[in-house]
Amino acid sequence: MTKLSGRKILLMTDFDGTIAAYRKDPRKVSLAKDMVAILQKFTRQPNLKLAVVSGRGLQDLEKMVNIRGIILAGCFGGVFRDEQGKVHTWEKAPDYFGPVEELAEFFSRSPVFKGVYIEKKEIALTLHYKDLGVKKRREVLKVIEEAREKNPIFNFHVGDKGTEIIPQGLGKGWFIQEMLKKYPDFYPVFLGNDWVDLEGIEVLRGQGLAFYVGDTPPPGSHGLSGLKEVKKLFKKLLAVNQAALNAS
Ligand SMILES: O=P(O)(O)OC[C@H]1O[C@H](O[C@H]2O[C@H](CO)[C@@H](O)[C@H](O)[C@H]2O)[C@H](O)[C@@H](O)[C@@H]1O
Description:
There is one protein chain. By secondary structure, the chain is α/β, with parallel strands linked by helices. Helix content is about 35%, strand content about 20%. The protein has two domains: about 1-90 and about 170-245, 3-Layer(aba) Sandwich (Rossmann fold), CATH 3.40.50; about 95-165, Alpha-Beta Plaits (2-Layer Sandwich), CATH 3.30.70. It has seven helices and twelve strands. The chain is elongated, with a radius of gyration of 19 Å. It binds ligand L263DTV3.
């Protein structure tokens, strides 16, 4: 925390599992009231910028974090809204709008996808199938494999519970680099909790502060046990920031 005192802060945080608790159904996730109150306080600090960067689509994230003045980045940072509400995209985003539509269409036409939630975002997709039995899941995975072979422009991260389909070359690291360029006089802090956040932690190595919510914080990050500790950290950040304001 001493690194932060007296400095302008660029606070960037992941959404799911970091500032919002996981839910079985991603559509049922919401921010806790006290977290909303903390985030609102951040937007009132003149020497603090807050960005939420998520794998969710930007439109979805805007509903989840309905607070003015926060920078919101969806699709792993590839589509983001700045503080003034202007939307920016990763340079290759236009190549992905059509293919995402086609992929979503392909999956929804497949009869084995009954029971799979196809989460279509601006330039990415997530397939949620954690509720399926072993046999059905195997069938779903076959179709996903077929799609993967036909769509090398995407990275397919296939897991037991779901598959993340992300444009090749896109990750939260790109967005964080953009923020560092835009706010060179702000000290960057990043919080994340899973593999999609590792790039962000890596980018800040030696030039910022990174926190990992979970049991085994990767090199270059500090561990936080869960949402309670995230809130504690945010409150400390607010206090340090306010103290600097009072002193100036
Ligand atoms: O970068 P994040 O904000 O962490 O987003 C990553 C993905 O999060 C969501 O899925 C995950 O959280 C769901 C809600 O708790 C959970 O049901 C699901 O199993 C998780 O994979 C979101 O739905 C995805 O779009 C994001 O890419």
